[in-house]
Design a protein that fits this description.
By secondary structure, the protein is mainly beta. It has two domains: 102 residues, Phage tail protein beta-alpha-beta fold; 540 residues, Maltoporin, Chain A (Beta Barrel). It has eight helices and 49 strands. A hairpin with an 8-residue loop joins strand 41 and strand 42. Helix 1 runs antiparallel to helix 3. The longest helix is centred in the N-terminal third of the chain and has 12 residues. The two termini are 31 Å apart.
């Protein structure tokens, strides 16, 4: 046995000697576990006892951020198959994790387990990287950020982003026509999402719902977030965090089956590939085939996502990864509005055609590497490419005639050769240093984004109309075909600088800015548009006591391009977002439970509105004098109330208004954003001997009335949808088998989930009662 008992190091110790509850700012590089444990003991004045043979050939990950010694030990031992036992105050013993498994039931979680462990059942995630690009505790982040971990998604059997994001305040699904996914965040619609901080457009890049099989968690940063990530809508940022390779072997096979012929198989496998675990892999696979309560709608796809990570040295690692998805989808444009409400039709009625479907291939591939220059500074680089090939056939509703039953439609189809390519890369340098006793965490970086889309389409604008109450579907294909070819290119690069400063008396300052240079081009017409902007961000947070944080922030952003074209026929410039936010955060019950209450005031400037000259307005000419405002309050709570009882809940009050416009919409509310909305989900895992392994839970999603379009001439009624779940897990040798049943929309409520926000003919119909069962085997 080796006993490490070292005296405190003055410059590293921030609390009383031997204290295991004092957080320390760590900057440890990836290195052999034995060395990492020695450094941890040196810098925290703790005693750590371990057997040299037990930790031999195990690599410890890098450690950045503020953690207590016990929390830091948990991070260093993550995925190693080892754990730390506190034998006395300030004294720890490193033992095999199997020892604890024999003493405690697997479903019982104690201390602060690693939320990225495949076995984690915790709802609360203590820190994120989305808001700052550094691993920062949520309690020290001066902005609102919510996390949906895989434990929540597993309990809800959430297989779409829409289901998962019900757990986040102020986020509502739009209408993606069963092809793409779009969401309204704090009143503003977005078509983009991010994968590990890298931008991916769902428009033309995504086909069908985004596959969830390889996601570790979803992090949602509220308000303008483009200072670190480039152009985006001001409502917020949805960042998908994929699963990472683990050294400890883990294998999982799940079979799901449910209503409307749902059949879904997923696989998750991870382990080391050599003796010293310097080479790790992870493989996620999914196959899904499902029908729908809607006529003519069925989808199936195949998905595979391999990841390979190589720890080249104690300072350098590189990871290569890929996602490939191929399949078929059926489009669904929902219902039109009659008067000020959605049409009263059978919920299964489809006003398109059975021939409306599409085929696609998506591939994302890339790599990222990091190198620790020393104990304080690290460089990271990422590069990805994404390509989507599409062939589709669509029958699109255009207008409901004055008789309120005849729906005009047109045909539109993407032909072979339609594709979109994007390339994304960024380089970051992060480091920590002190000036006059003040701690800094500095981030400097730059990124580049390129997108090119080529569309070869055929249209028929004389396609037969349909009687919505007595539909007779067409047996004819498109007759008068209009061919169309479009080719667009987008380039932008950005530079950013950020400093996280820790002042005395637990005051944290976040300050930074970004420079963007953006250009778009219509390749066929050679019309170009260029723009640049400097966007600032400043945030201040104070922890008067450890369980409470008070914060405020101001941020600006460069948005996506406004709809329409200017008087010179060029595309309009990007819109600008500005937000003030203030709030309070709390962590209770020894950090197992957290809550965030936020107030925000958000404006979107330079929006397009018709030219004040009616002649030019009829020609489609627009000016950028429009403005919209969103303000409100959001509450999010997450965590463990009692042993085995966990909850995730939210409420949002969102007051939106179009404050400037030339088209008669000034004073109207923004579409698809209810003034009041909330969601609550809670589970209880039994821990007594008789019922151990049994879990029950449920929740309700509440949505208030929403405006259907910018004109506010029809509304979407509010609704309440109740959901239930139960599961039972048993150990069979070294294997854990879990059977689970979820019932969504328990009372079979008829409702409408969202709108496109434009026109009156595209309202999404909510899913009726659904039963979803699964059997999962883990080893």
């Amino acid at each position: 046995m080796i006993l490490i008992l070292l005296l405190p190091v003055a410059h590293a110790q921030t609390g009383a000697a031997g204290s295991t509850s004092t957080a320390i700012n760590w900057h440890l590089s990836a290195q052999p576990l034995s060395t990492a444990l020695q450094q941890l003991a040196e810098h925290s004045n703790t005693s750590i006892m371990f057997d040299a043979a037990t930790v031999r050939n195990i690599q410890a990950p890098s450690l950045r951020g503020q953690y207590t010694p016990q929390e830091a030990l948990g991070k260093l031992l993550s995925g190693s198959g080892l754990q730390a036992e506190e034998t006395a105050p300030g004294r720890f013993s490193i033992v095999q994790a199997a020892t604890t498994v024999q003493q405690l039931p697997e479903m019982t979680v104690t201390g602060a387990p690693d939320p990225d462990s495949p076995y984690s059942t915790q709802y609360k995630v203590p820190d994120t990287t989305t808001a700052t690009k550094t691993k920062t505790p949520i309690m020290e982040t001066p902005m609102s950020i919510q996390v949906v971990p895989k434990s929540v998604m597993n309990d809800q059997q959430a297989i779409t982003l829409e289901q998962s994001l019900n757990n986040v305040s102020g986020v509502f699904p739009g209408v993606g026509f069963n092809v793409t996914e779009q969401f309204t965040l704090r009143g503003f619609n977005t078509l983009d999402y991010y994968r590990d901080g890298m931008r991916f457009q769902s428009w033309r890049m995504q086909t069908g719902a985004r596959e969830m099989a390889n996601l570790e968690r979803i992090e949602v940063l509220k308000g303008p977030a483009s200072i670190l990530y480039g152009r985006m809508e001001p409502g917020g940022m949805i960042n998908l965090v994929p699963k990472k390779p683990q050294a400890a072997p883990y294998y999982s096979l799940q079979q799901q089956f449910g209503s409307y012929n749902l059949f879904r198989t997923t696989l998750d496998a991870t382990s080391g590939l050599n003796q010293d675990n310097s080479l790790l892999y992870r493989l996620n696979f999914a196959y899904e085939d499902k029908g729908s309560f809607r006529e003519f709608v069925d989808n199936h796809h195949f998905f595979v996502a391999p990841v390979l990570q190589w720890q080249i040295s104690d300072r350098t690692q590189i990871t290569a990864e890929m996602e490939y998805k191929t399949g078929k989808w059926s489009q669904d444009y929902g219902f039109p509005a009659i008067g000020n409400r959605p049409a009263n039709l059978p919920i299964n009625r489809n006003l398109g055609e059975s021939s409306a479907n599409g085929h696609y291939n998506e591939i994302t591939a890339g790599f990222h590497w990091s190198h620790a220059l020393n104990e304080n500074w690290e460089i990271k680089h990422r590069a990805y490419l994404q390509r989507t090939d599409i062939e589709s056939s669509q029958v699109v509703p255009s207008q409901l005639l004055a008789d309120n039953r005849t729906l005009n439609r047109f045909y539109w189809g993407e032909q072979k050769g339609s594709k979109t390519d994007s390339y994304i890369t960024n380089l970051d340098l992060t480091g920590g240093f002190e000036t006059f006793g003040i701690q800094h965490t500095m981030l400097m970086g730059g990124d580049y984004y390129h997108l090119r889309g080529d569309s070869h389409a055929a249209g028929d604008f004389s396609f037969p109309s349909i009687d919505i109450f007595n539909p007779v579907y067409s047996t004819l294909g498109p007759q008068a075909v209009v061919m169309s070819h479009s080719a667009n290119r987008e380039n932008w690069f950005g530079l950013y600088l950020q400093d996280q400063i820790k002042l005395p008396y637990d005051v944290h300052v976040l300050a930074g800015f970004r420079y963007d240079n953006v250009g778009t081009e219509n390749i066929l017409t050679e019309l170009k548009n260029k723009q640049d902007k400097v966007s600032p961000r400043i945030g201040l947070l104070w922890q008067p006591v450890k369980p409470i944080s008070l914060y405020g922030s101001y941020v600006e952003s460069l948005g996506t391009y406004a709809n329409g074209r200017g008087i010179d026929s060029r595309p309009l410039k990007a819109e600008i977002g500005k937000q003030w936010e203030a709030g309070v955060k709390t962590e209770l019950l020894d950090g197992r439970f957290s809550a965030t209450l936020a107030w925000f005031h958000l404006t979107k400037n330079d929006m397009s509105t018709p030219h004040p000259d009616p002649v030019l307005a009829v020609q489609g000419i627009a000016v950028q004098t429009g403005e919209a405002r969103s303000k409100g309050i959001e509450l999010n709570i997450t965590g463990e109330l009692l042993p085995g009882w966990q909850m995730i809940a939210n409420y949002a009050y969102t007051d939106t208004e179009i404050t400037r416009a030339n088209n008669g919409t000034q004073g109207n509310r923004l579409p698809n954003a209810p003034k009041h909305a909330g969601n609550i989900w809670s589970i209880y895992a039994f821990e007594n001997e008789t019922l151990r392994g049994l879990k029950i839970g449920g929740g309700v999603t509440l949505r208030g009335k929403r405006e259907g379009n910018l004109e506010n001439d029809y509304q979407i009624p509010g609704y309440a949808v109740f959901n239930l779940m139960t599961s039972y897990g048993i150990k069979v040798g070294k294997t854990r088998v879990t059977a689970q049943l979820n019932v969504n929309n328990l009372f079979n409520k008829e409702y409408f989930s969202g709108t496109s926000g434009f026109g009156r003919t595209r309202i999404a119909v909510g899913t009726p009662r659904v039963f979803l069962g699964s059997l999962r085997v883990e080893y």
